[in-house]
Design goal:
The chain is an alpha+beta fold. It has six helices and six strands; from the N terminus they run ααβαββααβββα. Helix 1 packs across helix 5.
Length: about 200
Amino acid sequence: AGRNDNAVAVGDAGIAGQMFAAQGFSAPIVLWQPTEDMVTDEALKTVLRYWNKVRGGQRVPMREDIEIGDLGPVQDSLMLLDRVEGWDWRYRHYGQAIADLAQVDHTGMRTSEVRAGNFIAYFFLASYAAVGQRRHPLYTVHSPPAESTATVWRRMILPVSDDRGEIVPMQGGKLPGPYREIVGELYVRWRAPPRATTVAASS
């Protein structure tokens, strides 16, 4: 995943796009440092707003300052992860709303174990590593695996510092569709023309 996460970190999702295309899926959309008006989902806006509030003047907030109960019902659309060895992650908290829609609860599982060997698991790993490297919020939209009941994944991945000073992801996820309508709305908000493969990024 090293080559992939480096590419995502600099705002180039081309490698990930190739992986999705090889499986017959549309390329993912990647947007660094999104503002609330760029996000279409209210739950993800709430997560981003909360992250900004907790971090205050810091670049990233401390995980000990994150109280998921403060998010009310939105906590059901939240994931918290811990780093394990190498580039892998373990889901400490996997929101019930996500588990219900995905038809699986990944609490306690490693990201690499999620549909092991699947291209989407590698995209997740690359995204988390890129957020750790860049230390900025990352908003992505991608097609889910065929077995999912949803038609699109929308994710807000936010960097949080753990007690060892490592950057770990806090992720808000939402699964409504359809993909084309959501992507079209994103392009209107971002004032960018629709294209088959697009990466929106800011430094």
